[in-house]
């Protein structure tokens, strides 16, 4: 659970608010996508939750504890983060050492540690790379290791801060399906900060941030459906498949339920095709 | 300026245990004024290829010519100043290369270095900040105080300020929001059309490749896998699977519709709304 209550933040007293009286509650195990233009404040939200930046006004709660400078380290233990640049997040010489780093910090016993490392590497399909140097992996593989390093500590919350933006399309797709699989296996609260609507569609809920405030909040189906143009107007044109579905409706086809991906569109068309 | 690669190979760290051949006999020709997109999975050799275009790397073997300029093979040292003045490169996340105290200094670093007369500088500055759509108020600020999107524009303005004949862009829109991405692609497209700048773009956005490129080169493991018009390459979907590339969402939809409903739709850049009409009439005919 994450709760923002009238939270404001700015970098300097003289600057404008980057986060402006923000109110937001994210339920336990919910998958939430946060989207917004460059400079909207969306990445700042992630940094405020983890206490990398400290809010000036209002209250932030993480799993029912109010975030304060005193309990910041305890709160951070509940959160895993994966950032944009896969190069900047390695500390170990090998994949194994890298994942062990966080476990050592938590005082996990050596025998248990190896077991946990093997288990998490299996889950991210990277076990065969256990003794490799992280630098020599591909971008997508590096991000898998970054996810493994975060998830081995069993955080309540995983934050992906534009974590796919430096990957190629295949790497992106694989990473999203990995996160989906991990979430299905053992749920956690997922916060993904992204520009890609194709990724945001995989969330239970999409939140649009503009000038440090929530300007739109709903399920993908609510936001993309039928006559809802709010996302378009905020500068997030729908993916091609959804534009096509909207085009079909405008031309007098009614599609129920409104399709969000290619598969759903094809099956909606099948039904219509068979009726004719 | 035209660019020709003839059987170009490049090996990193030759004769060491880390030796890695990154390009194998790569040959292609880019006519002057073309808009070319280079695609390929991570590690396919795209960045290595680009670095040959202004002499940051020199081929291990083969010939690279850019206009009248011949790039010598490795080891021979030559002056590259003239080449670098004519070929502007923006690498991935070019904002990481900003370094000067103000936006003005940063943008004018290139022209100063290339000996543009002082009196032309201000004009040049005004010209490029308008091109990229940067607010005039920002020019005396530190580039490091700007937002990510603004920093990207400063970096691109810096490349354009030297008035290159060839513009080489390595994923210039990565990490930008959708609107900024469209704006930046429209900028490159209009520069290409109006100033006749030869443009070489590396991108993972297949929709952009489809929309903007005259010509596309697909790289795979350091070799040219295919080259031609984007729409022709994308229509050969099985070949693209081999090289770990995904189709643009639009073309993929055409293929799926054609396969599933036995239709004969073809992609001509029509809008989703127009495609919807075509689908309805095709499915309608089918039942009558």
TrEMBL record, chain A:
Pfam families: ABC_tran. Gene3D superfamilies: P-loop containing nucleotide triphosphate hydrolases. Residues 2-236 form the ABC transporter domain. SUPFAM superfamilies: P-loop containing nucleoside triphosphate hydrolases (SSF52540). InterPro entries: AAA+_ATPase, ABC_transporter-like_ATP-bd, ABC_transporter-like_CS, ABC_transpr_CbiO/EcfA_su, ECF_ABC_transporter_ATP-bd, EcfA_1, P-loop_NTPase. Its EC number is 3.6.3.-. It is a peripheral membrane protein. One of its GO terms (molecular function) is cobalt ion transmembrane transporter activity. It is found in: Cell membrane. GO terms for cellular component: ATP-binding cassette (ABC) transporter complex. It is an enzyme of class 3 (hydrolase). Keywords: ATP-binding, Cell membrane, Hydrolase, Membrane, Nucleotide-binding, Translocase, Transport. Belongs to the ABC transporter superfamily. PANTHER family: ENERGY-COUPLING FACTOR TRANSPORTER ATP-BINDING PROTEIN ECFA1, HEAVY METAL TRANSPORTER. NCBIfam families: ECF_ATPase_1 (TIGR04520), PRK13648.1 (NF010167). This is Energy-coupling factor transport system ATP-binding protein. It comes from Gracilibacillus halotolerans. The lineage of its organism: Bacteria, Bacillati, Bacillota, Bacilli, Bacillales.
TrEMBL record, chain B:
InterPro entries: AAA+_ATPase, ABC_transporter-like_ATP-bd, ABC_transporter-like_CS, ABC_transpr_CbiO/EcfA_su, ECF_ABC_transporter_ATP-bd, EcfA2, P-loop_NTPase. The keyword Transport applies. Keywords: ATP-binding, Cell membrane, Hydrolase, Membrane, Nucleotide-binding, Translocase, Transport. It comes from the Bacteria. PROSITE patterns: ABC_TRANSPORTER_1, ABC_TRANSPORTER_2. Pfam families: ABC_tran. One of its GO terms (molecular function) is cobalt ion transmembrane transporter activity. It is a peripheral membrane protein. GO terms for cellular component: ATP-binding cassette (ABC) transporter complex. Its EC number is 7.-.-.-. Gene3D superfamilies: P-loop containing nucleotide triphosphate hydrolases. It is an enzyme of class 7 (translocase). Residues 3-246 form the ABC transporter domain. The keyword ATP-binding applies. Its main location: membrane. It is found in: Cell membrane. ATP-binding (A) component of a common energy-coupling factor (ECF) ABC-transporter complex. Forms a stable energy-coupling factor (ECF) transporter complex composed of 2 membrane-embedded substrate-binding proteins (S component), 2 ATP-binding proteins (A component) and 2 transmembrane proteins (T component). Belongs to the ABC transporter superfamily. Energy-coupling factor EcfA family. This is Energy-coupling factor transporter ATP-binding protein EcfA2.
């Amino acid at each position: 659970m994450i709760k923002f209550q009238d939270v404001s933040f700015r970098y300097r007293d003289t600057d404008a608010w980057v986060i402006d009286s923000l109110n937001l509650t994210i339920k336990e195990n919910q998958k939430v996508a946060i989207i917004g233009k460059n400079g909207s404040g969306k990445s700042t939200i992630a940094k405020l939750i983890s206490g990398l930046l400290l809010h000036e006004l209002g209250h932030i709660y993480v799993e029912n504890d109010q975030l304060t400078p005193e309990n910041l380290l305890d709160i951070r233990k509940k959160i895993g983060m994966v950032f944009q640049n896969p190069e900047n997040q390695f500390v170990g010489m090998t994949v194994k050492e890298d994942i062990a780093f966080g476990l050592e910090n938590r005082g996990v016993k050596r025998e248990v540690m190896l077991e946990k490392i093997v288990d998490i590497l299996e889950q991210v399909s990277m076990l065969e790379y256990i003794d490799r140097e992280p630098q020599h992996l591909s971008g997508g593989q590096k991000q898998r290791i970054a996810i493994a390093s975060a998830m081995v500590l069993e955080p309540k919350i995983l934050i992906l801060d534009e974590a796919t933006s430096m990957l190629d399309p295949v790497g992106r797709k694989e990473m999203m399906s990995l996160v989906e699989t991990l979430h299905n296996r053992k749920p956690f609260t997922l916060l993904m900060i992204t520009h890609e609507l194709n990724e945001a569609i995989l969330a239970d809920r999409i939140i649009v941030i503009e000038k440090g405030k929530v300007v739109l909040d709903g399920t993908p189906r609510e936001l993309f459906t039928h006559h809802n143009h709010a996302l378009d107007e905020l500068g997030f044109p729908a993916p091609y498949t959804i534009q096509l579905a909207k085009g079909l409706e405008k031309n007098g086809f009614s599609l129920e339920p409104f399709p969000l991906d290619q598969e759903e569109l094809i099956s909606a068309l099948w039904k219509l095709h068979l009726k004719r | 300026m035209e660019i020709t690669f003839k059987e170009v190979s490049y090996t990193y760290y030759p004769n060491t245990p880390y030796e890695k051949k990154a390009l194998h006999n790569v040959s292609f020709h880019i006519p002057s004024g073309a808009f070319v997109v280079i695609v390929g999975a991570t590690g396919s050799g795209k960045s290595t290829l680009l670095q040959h275009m202004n002499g940051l790397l020199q081929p291990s073997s083969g010939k690279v010519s850019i206009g009248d300029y011949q790039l010598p093979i490795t080891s021979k040292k030559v002056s590259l100043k003239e080449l670098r003045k004519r070929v502007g490169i923006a690498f991935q996340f070019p904002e990481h290369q900003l370094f000067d105290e103000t936006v003005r200094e940063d943008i004018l670093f290139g022209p100063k270095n290339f000996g543009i007369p002082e009196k032309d500088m201000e004009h040049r500055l005004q010209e490029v900040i308008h091109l990229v759509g940067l607010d005039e108020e920002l020019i005396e600020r530190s580039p490091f105080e700007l937002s990510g999107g603004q920093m990207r524009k400063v970096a691109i303005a810096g490349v354009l300020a030297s008035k290159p004949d060839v513009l080489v862009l390595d994923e210039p829109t990565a990490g930008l929001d959708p609107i900024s991405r469209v704006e930046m692609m429209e900028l490159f497209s209009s520069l290409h059309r109006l100033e006749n700048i030869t443009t070489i773009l590396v991108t993972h956005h297949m929709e952009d490749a489809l929309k903007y490129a005259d010509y596309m080169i697909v790289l795979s493991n350091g070799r040219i896998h295919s080259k031609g018009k984007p729409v022709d390459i994308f229509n050969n979907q099985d070949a693209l699977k081999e090289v770990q590339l995904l189709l643009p969402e639009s073309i993929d939809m055409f293929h799926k519709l054609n396969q599933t409903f036995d239709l004969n739709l073809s992609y001509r850049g029509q809008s989703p709304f127009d495609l919807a009409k075509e689908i309805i009439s095709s499915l309608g005919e089918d039942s009558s």
